[in-house]
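tokens incoming
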């Protein structure tokens, strides 16, 4: 069944019948989990986040207006949810770091740096580089290379013009390359 037809059927059936919604979840659960995992870097957090995203979709689906592809809309919700979780983690870490004393913080930082240099697995290093990118830069790299979205689709997900998205993508790619050189080589 075509994506558009499936979405229409879901909207008609929900909340009483969930057969079409179940098909929709089955169709996209791996993509959403993969996206969440790349953002959150932890399997259990990614599973929880994926489930939260599909709950949000369940409630928001009747408001879907077909201004973009469903997949684009779904990715937007997933990215926003992951960014919210990351921001919460950052706040929690910030609070915790205020409690820790300076010496233990410096020791942890030295250990992390030593661990990064010691890692031989290029894949792990690439993940670390992606994790060190900030917000939109990380979004652009993940959507392009992890989810194989075209730049126009990425522009739609981020709500930006194609030209602006291209410019930001190439700048993000340069940042990725610089960080890769710095961290991995």
């Amino acid at each position: 069944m075509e994506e558009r037809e499936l979405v229409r059927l879901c909207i008609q059936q929900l909340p009483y019948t969930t057969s079409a919604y179940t098909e929709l979840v089955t169709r996209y659960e791996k993509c959403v989990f993969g996206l969440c995992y790349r953002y959150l870097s932890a399997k259990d957090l990614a599973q929880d986040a994926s489930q939260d995203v599909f709950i949000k979709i369940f409630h928001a689906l009747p408001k879907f207006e077909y201004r973009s592809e469903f997949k684009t809309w779904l990715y937007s919700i997933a990215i926003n949810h992951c960014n919210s979780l990351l921001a919460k983690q950052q706040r929690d870490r910030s609070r915790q770091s205020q409690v820790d004393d300076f010496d233990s913080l410096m020791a942890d930082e030295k250990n992390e740096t030593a661990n990064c240099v010691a890692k031989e697995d290029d894949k792990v290093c690439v993940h670390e580089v992606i994790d060190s990118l900030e917000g939109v830069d990380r979004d652009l790299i993940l959507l392009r290379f992890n989810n194989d979205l075209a730049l126009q689709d990425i522009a739609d997900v981020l709500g930006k013009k194609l030209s602006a998205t291209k410019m930001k993508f190439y700048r993000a790619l340069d940042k990725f390359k610089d960080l890769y050189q710095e961290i991995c080589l």
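note: The mean pLDDT is 81.
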